[in-house]
Amino acid sequence: MPSLSNLPTPHPRTTASHKRETLLQIILPAVICFLLLAGGLVWGVSPGAAASRSGADVALIFIMLLLLLPLLLIGLMFAAVLVGVWKFYSILLPYMKVLQGVGILIQDRTRFYADKAAAPFIAINSWQAALQECARQVSKPFRQEVR
């Protein structure tokens, strides 16, 4: 299997920008949501909470956690699929040029055999056109010009 060492290294500035955007757009909102839910849960079950709030507030937090659990599982499955596709792509990357060459060879062979199959029909049409032109040229002197 060809090594991936001949691939170009990513530019440090773009790598740093990508890491920063990942942190700001994915990780930070997920951490904030988790902290808000955890804080609400701690706030809801803390001593003295029953005196100032109803049990419905605490139940609502548990319901939100139960609703977010399937979303978390779907997110984890999506992340696993993305990692799998990325690994698959990194494995296939050295073979892409070979596959592209095979595709071009198949295209050339298909065009060659299509041209070969269509050649008799093109020849018949050209013979027909040549015969018609010959007949027109031969009959030209015999035609009377109408003035």
What would the keywords be for this entry?
147 residues; 0% strand; mainly alpha
What's a quick, concise take on this entry?
By secondary structure, this protein is mostly helical. The protein is 82% helix and 0% strand.
Protein described:
With 147 residues, the protein is an all-alpha fold. Helix content is 82%, strand content 0%. The protein contains 4 helices and no strands. The longest helix has 44 residues, at 96-139. It is elongated and about 120 Å long. The protein starts with 11 loop residues before the first helix and ends in an 8-residue tail after the last helix. The mean pLDDT is 80.
Number of strands: 0
Gyration radius from CA atoms, angstroms: 37 Å
Distance between the termini: 83 Å
- Helix percentage: over 70%
- The low-confidence runs, each spanning 5 or more residues with pLDDT under 50, are none
- The ordered string of helix (H) and strand (E) elements is HHHH
Overall residue-averaged pLDDT value = 80
Number of helices: 4
User: What is the overall shape?
Assistant: elongated
What assembly state would you assign to the polypeptide chains in this entry? Answer: single chain
How does the helix and strand content classify structurally?
mainly alpha
Report the β-strand fraction as a percent range: under 5%
How would a textbook summarize the main sheet? Answer: none
